[in-house]
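Why does residue order matter? Because the sequence determines the fold. Keep that principle in mind as you read this record.
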Amino acid sequence: MKPFASPSLPDTETHLSQMEAVMTDLTHEDRLFLRELQKNIAASLAGYFDQAFGTNVLPATGASITIEGEVKMNMYDHAPGLAFFEKETSRSVAVPPYTEYYKLRELAEAGFAEFYQASSEAEDVYEGLFRPLIMRICNSGGVVIDLYERGAGSWTQCLLANGPKRQFRLRS
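Structure:
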């Protein structure tokens, strides 16, 4: 009798190409469902971390930090006759997964300081220069939970733990 032969496992390249084929067959609704499932899993884990370790991760789950400002553009490229104009734009700051809520401001301020220092040291270079003005911290739903405007000089907490104080939606 012949011994039972186990089926050979596919090599990594074959496995990856099969997975890629499955991913391309997903519909838009499938992708939305998986994205929502991923958010729910992250929130469950964050809730567990908060209960088990006394952290405050859940409010920051899926948060994003955006620094808005202006970029100087050369008018000769866009409207001859003038030197420079400013165009509104934004930059993102990376938020590590399961970051505690209070650390979001620290990350935002560090990113803001980096951009501000670069714009201060630019001297004669104007083309493409980004000047930061506003820091926005948004929750996973895109609602602004913390806002800093350079002119005001202080943070405005927009969404509190006991309910909304002020809510803003990001412009698309």
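Residues 160-172 have pLDDT under 50 and may be disordered.
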